[in-house]
């Protein structure tokens, strides 16, 4: 079974530039999550999708971050404009359904450095 | 969700059992205990979860105290590849499932 695919693996941009990350979840997984992990901290949920609908985006900084999952499969996360404090690893995860008894599978993440 | 408390770091000799504690004293009756781990430069990986009874799978064992206020993840024969950050998470059975991570325990397995 193929895992969660993310690209790019690494990205370096200057502050105020824009950047986009792509995620392809495991086939058939209805639920997709984007997390931000700052160095030395645990992952923090940014947004959760159920199919192509947003379930929770309460921690997404909506003035600069946006995410979409138009066809209920792939998803993109965008930052515009980027700030220095956005330097982090952005993790995508998916799960089969949205219940307690289902494990979430994570991709390897995209490491973003804002200079 | 109930909060969890874990030691910041631990170490273990290769081949020995690694016992990682987690305190979740405010856990409620419908909340499960989950463990994930994150190896350097990788995404978190699910290990095991349980409600009341002890659980075992090919990766680890989970021991939950009778009052459910604490649990221990046991790696029976730790290897160097088990060096990682281990996260203990408590999640409710109803509603949406959103894995929320604390800082976890950094386990170093040494030769």
**End-to-end gap of chain B:** 38 Å
What is the radius of gyration of chain B computed over CA atoms, rounded to a whole number of angstroms? 13 Å
What is the subunit organization of this protein? Answer: heterodimer
Total DSSP helices of chain B? 0
Please compute the radius of gyration of chain A using only Cα atoms.
Answer: 13 Å
- The helix content of chain B is under 10%
The biggest beta sheet of chain B is recorded as: 5 strands, mixed
Tally the beta strands of chain A. Answer: 11
Q: Please state the structural category of chain B.
A: mainly beta
Query: What structural class should be given to the helix and strand makeup of chain A?
Result: mainly beta
Going across the major beta sheet of chain B, what is the strand order? Answer: 1-9-8-3-4
Distance between the termini of chain A: 37 Å
Mean pLDDT of chain A: 92
Number of beta-strand segments of chain B? 9
State the low-pLDDT regions of chain A, or none.
Answer: none
Overall shape of chain B? globular
Main beta sheet of chain A: 7 strands, mixed
Strand content of chain B: over 45%
User: What is the overall number of helices of chain A?
Assistant: 0
What is the H/E order of chain A?
Answer: EEEEEEEEEEE
| Topology of chain B as a string of helices (H) and strands (E) | EEEEEEEEE
Task: Please give the structural blueprint.
The complex is a heterodimer of chains A (115) and B (111).
Chain A lengths: L4 E3 L2 E4 L5 E6 L6 E7 L6 E7 L2 E4 L8 E4 L6 E5 L8 E8 L9 E2 L3 E5 L1
Chain B lengths: L8 E5 L4 E6 L7 E8 L6 E6 L4 E2 L4 E4 L5 E6 L8 E9 L12 E6 L1
Parallel strand pairs in B: 1-9
Antiparallel strand pairs in B: 2-7, 3-4, 3-8, 5-6, 6-7, 8-9
Task: Please give a structural write-up.
The complex is a heterodimer of chains A (115) and B (111). With 115 residues, chain A is an all-beta fold. Chain A has strands at 5-7, 10-13, 19-24, 31-37, 44-50, 53-56, 65-68, 75-79, 88-95, 105-106, 110-114. Chain A contains no helices and 11 strands. Chain B contains no helices and 9 strands. In chain B, strands 1-9-8-3-4 form a 5-stranded mixed beta sheet, with no helix packed on it. Classes of the chains: A mainly beta (115), B mainly beta (111). The interface between A and B is medium-sized, with 27 and 23 residues.
């Amino acid at each position: 079974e193929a895992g969660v695919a993310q690209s790019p693996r690494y990205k370096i941009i200057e502050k105020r530039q824009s950047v986009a990350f792509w995620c392809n979840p495991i086939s058939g997984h209805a639920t997709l999550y984007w997390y931000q992990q700052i160095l030395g901290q645990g992952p923090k949920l940014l947004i959760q999708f159920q199919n192509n609908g947003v379930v929770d985006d309460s921690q997404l900084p909506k003035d600069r971050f946006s995410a979409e999952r138009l066809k209920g499969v792939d998803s993109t996360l965008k930052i515009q404009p980027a700030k220095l404090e956005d330097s982090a690893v952005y993790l995508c995860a998916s799960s089969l359904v949205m219940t307690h008894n289902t494990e979430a599978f994570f991709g390897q993440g995209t490491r973003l450095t804002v200079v | 969700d109930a909060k969890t408390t874990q030691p910041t770091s631990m170490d273990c000799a290769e081949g020995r059992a690694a016992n990682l504690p987690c305190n979740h004293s405010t856990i409620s009756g419908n909340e499960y205990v989950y463990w994930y781990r994150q190896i350097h430069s990788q995404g978190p990986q699910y290990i095991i979860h349980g409600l009341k009874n002890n659980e075992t799978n090919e990766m680890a064992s989970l021991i939950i105290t009778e009052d459910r206020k604490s649990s221990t993840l046991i790696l029976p024969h730790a290897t160097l590849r088990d060096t990682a950050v281990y996260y203990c998470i408590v999640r409710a059975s109803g509603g949406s499932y959103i894995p929320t991570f604390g800082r976890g325990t950094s386990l170093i397995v040494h030769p």
